[in-house]
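dude i think i finally got it to work??
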Amino acid sequence: MKKRVFYWLVSGVILLVLGGCLSVGPDYKRPETVMPDAWHSKIQDELSSETPDIQKWWTVFEDDILNELIAQATTNNLDLKTAAARIEQAAALRGVSASQYFPEIFANGGASAVQRTDRNTPPGTDRRGALYSAGLSMAWELDLWGRVRRSVESADASWMATVEDYRDVMVVLYADIALNYIKVRTLQERIHFAENNLAAQKKTKALSKNRFDSGLVPMLDVSQAQLNYSRTASLIPPLKQQLIVTINRLSVLTGQMPYALYKKLEKVQPIPVPPAKLVLGLPSELLRQRPDIRRAERNLAAQNALIGATKAELYPTLALPGTLALEAPNGDLFKGSNLAYSFGPQVRWSIFDGGRIRSQVHAEEAATRAALHIYEQTVLKALEETEDSMAAFANEKDRIKSLETASTSARKSVDLVMELYKSGLTDFQNVLNMELALLTQEDQLASSRGLISIDLVRIYKALGGGWTIPKEQGNE
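look at this
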């Protein structure tokens, strides 16, 4: 008996080793993606040929408060913590899949009361008794066709996909903080311009009233001045409301109560200015840098492995069950004669299932094709977002030059028309028109200054900036 047990054990180990060389289903190959050699946008004329380092792209604005806000978000943001927890969950699920490589051993024991019903038992004999048992049982499925290996391969890829999801949350988070911070500074500048214009229009209103009292102008001038002043005053509360909402958003992004950043941000600071030269790299860098592309590729790998895991069910399953037990009545459990054991291979093969397994294989193959198309679409979307943000940045730089000229001209025009009005050489309507033009041009100028920096943030976000590719993954 011992020789037979040894024979089956050795045979099982040999089969296990041989089975380790076979995995059904397609082996994964990374999709070959053709990328442009250069960016199409005219911004490429301003790009540096240096190797890009966009791990901490926000430092190009040289703003200490922005740097501090991003540091706080890295530590406190709840979305980031959620993504980190999902990495731990995926790692644990990978361990669940890998546990199938090993035998599962159970310990069991019991005690039960028995009642004999043998008629040959002499009268007066106690027919009651007890039966005690203790032992071990084992179940071990040999991975002959790679079902477990493919499952672990899929779990590995899914785990890596959650890592990329974490990185994607980082990219989006840092960009959102920078966008909202720039919006805060932009709103403060717009409010500043509006309040300056409101102060100037108050003086104009007083001037028109004095001239009316002197009988030099009609009451219409006073009414129009009041209209202009009130209209400008009405623009300021919505801007202040937007400022409050934006500060609240920044506070939550950094993991704090909505009102937490009021004192830190209430002091007016200049809008962050982009650097003169940009270092952005080539389109091919997107495949390595953008976490959403990397995540889509890992999801594709995970789905591809499921084909093999499902296909393995078409083939026989070989298991090595075994038991080792002690059974005895009345407490004599540990006598050698009470030892019982069993060990031997078992084969299970689904001969007919109504096409269930093959249909499931086809379903996994279709899901893999869908995952491939998702990956390809993600690459196209990344290129689109980058090109769009580059074009917006370049065109806004052209626009701001015209706005700066227009604002300068508007300020000069207001000064000139006021002198003419005081001298009685021009109509009051010209004063109103010039004041309105100045208000409009300065508001647009402040908005444009913010948009340039916002567009640059969107470029870095589109490039996947905010983290560094590990050296061991650099050639993935």
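Residues 23-107+145-315+355-473 form a domain with the Outer membrane efflux proteins (OEP) fold (CATH 1.20.1600.10).
im so relieved honestly
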